[in-house]
């Protein structure tokens, strides 16, 4: 893999995910491609107030001018997808599984700030089930202050990592100590509502019919909606500067009833969304700083 700084391509406009997904179906991966060679950057980004309010409502955050810690993910998501579809990339986007998410925030971003958003990729790592790659989104202010960083880890099942690739060393996040669980009913239209504010129109989230085409018996929740909804329950208790680790486990079928548990863990928190029999869908760990 290359160790030189990536070439930065500045985007004239945000990528349109509804156009990228059809291309992802027909695009061919290049197993020899180095995903670290190119980064995509958007400048002069401003958050739309109506979009932020809609996101807050869908995910359960209170309405205010501070961006929730999960919101910047959707600012970089389009560029991450474009990196995997429009640039040489070793895996097909269709079939990749979002297995982990890490968020590092030095302070909340605020509505009205002019932002720069950059998407890049880390070297491919070997994994017991195939290969994994990190897609990195960085969001800072227009004057160069780095504020938010998200690392999305995707698994390509059955794929091979390049010779000499390091092994993925991630370990499972422990479940929170059992507290009194809250019951959530996840409406069947949650996927369409979250797609409307995030732009993530992956068919597996939109309807039973479209999900069945891709092997699911019903539409499944976006993992980042589930993580955001879990963090929203802690909203007033979340530190301004924080690190969030998220592990995505069993897909959450829309129309299901699930349990949410949260427990203190030293200075931080652990949360989990779990289904029948206590099987986890999403597990999170929140730490200050």
Automatic annotation (TrEMBL):
> What GO cellular component entries does it have?
fatty acid synthase complex
Chain ranges of the MaoC-like domain? 190-266
Per its UniProt record, what SUPFAM superfamilies does this chain match? Thioesterase/thiol ester dehydrase-isomerase
InterPro entries from the xrefs?
FAS1-like_DH_region, Fatty_acid_synthase, HotDog_dom_sf, MaoC-like_dom
Q: Which residue range or ranges hold the FAS1-like dehydratase domain?
A: 67-147
Query: What is the similarity comment for this entry?
Result: Belongs to the enoyl-CoA hydratase/isomerase family.
What protein name applies here?
MaoC dehydratase-like protein
């Amino acid at each position: 893999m290359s160790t030189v700084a990536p070439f930065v391509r500045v985007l004239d406009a945000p990528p349109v995910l509804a156009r990228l997904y059809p291309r992802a179906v027909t695009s061919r991966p290049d197993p020899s491609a180095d995903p670290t060679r190119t980064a995509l950057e958007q400048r002069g980004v401003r958050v739309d107030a109506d979009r932020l309010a809609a996101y807050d409502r869908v995910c359960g955050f209170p309405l205010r001018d501070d961006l929730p810690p999960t919101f910047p993910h959707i600012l970089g998501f389009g560029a991450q997808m474009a990196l995997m579809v429009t640039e040489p990339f070793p895996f097909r986007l269709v079939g990749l599984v979002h297995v982990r998410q890490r968020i590092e925030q030095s302070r909340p971003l605020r509505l009205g700030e002019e932002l720069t958003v950059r998407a890049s990729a880390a070297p491919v790592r070997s994994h017991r089930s195939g290969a994994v790659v990190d897609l990195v989104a960085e969001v800072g202010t227009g004057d160069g202050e780095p504020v938010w960083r998200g690392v999305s880890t995707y698994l390509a099942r059955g794929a091979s990592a390049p010779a000499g690739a390091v092994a993925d060393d991630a370990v499972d996040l422990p479940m929170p100590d059992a507290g009194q669980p809250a019951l959530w009913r996840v409406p069947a239209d949650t996927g369409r509502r979250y797609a409307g504010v995030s732009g993530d129109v992956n068919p597996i989230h939109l309807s039973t019919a479209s999900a069945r085409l891709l092997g699911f018996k019903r539409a499944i929740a976006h993992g980042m909606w589930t993580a955001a909804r879990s963090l929203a329950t802690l909203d007033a208790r979340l530190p301004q500067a924080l690190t969030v680790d998220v592990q995505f486990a069993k897909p959450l079928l829309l129309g299901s009833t699930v349990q949410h548990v949260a427990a203190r863990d030293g200075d931080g928190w652990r949360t989990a969304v779990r289904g029948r029999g206590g099987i986890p869908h999403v597990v999170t760990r929140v730490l200050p700083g």
